[in-house]
Amino acid sequence: MDIIVLLPLGRCSKIQELQMTTVIEENVHVFGVDGNSDELDEPIKDVFADVAFAKKHNLMSLNSINWSRVLVQMAHHFFAYFQCVPSMDICPLPTVEVVVPTGAAGNLAAGCIAREMGLPIRLVAVVNQNDIIHRTVQKGDFSLSGITRLTLASAMDIQVPYNMERIFWLLSGSHSGLLRALMEQFDRTKNLCLPRKLHVKLAQMLPGPRLGCQVPGRRPPSPAGPRDSQRHPSAGAHEDSVYSPSERR
């Protein structure tokens, strides 16, 4: 098996960059490329859309474009809940608040599915200055907002959280026709206003003012100049979850 890694140049911390570029195994191939995370997703999507090519080369992605990753993250939410609430003899079961730093929203989608399965959790999506999910929940505005801002939480510097499509599908009652129309409009115009019914359900799924939590940003490096990633104080933030018990509301 060969592993291909696309490294967005100048958009990772020095530690992250070294973790990827110092691998010596012959089956690992790391390519430094220009562009942000959203732009790197486009060729990957195109490759997987070529069904014959993907089948011929037995392609698989470790990113959350692969449903199996979301499935595993669902188990994380259940495991964490049972750690916080070790006894199931409590009635009603307490709600556990799950705070999810969110980029492509894979972990968030997993939490939404777990919640729909009956797990008593309250999800809080935390974003940085690339706040499309915040705007979507608060205003129903699933639209791009100019350039992708480079922040200390580099793994969250995403403007196209593609797992929101899965959340929309879940909350629409598995309405594939509606979802296709919505996502085709977004792909075409990069601008989408959610139908009111869908927006209301999304706001109920992801309540809470902390959706607007921001991480201080920094200016992106000049493409022609030296990268100052050594001054980057963060080792990079990844989608993860913080769990805390809270009272049912």
UniProtKB/TrEMBL annotation:
Residue ranges of the region described as Disordered: 209-249
Any one GO molecular-function label of the UniProt entry: pyridoxal phosphate binding
Gene Ontology terms: biological process: 2-oxobutyrate biosynthetic process; serine family amino acid catabolic process
Basic and acidic residues biased stretches: 237-249
Domain of life of the source: Eukaryota
Official protein name in the record: Threonine synthase like 2
Protein species of origin: Sarcophilus harrisii
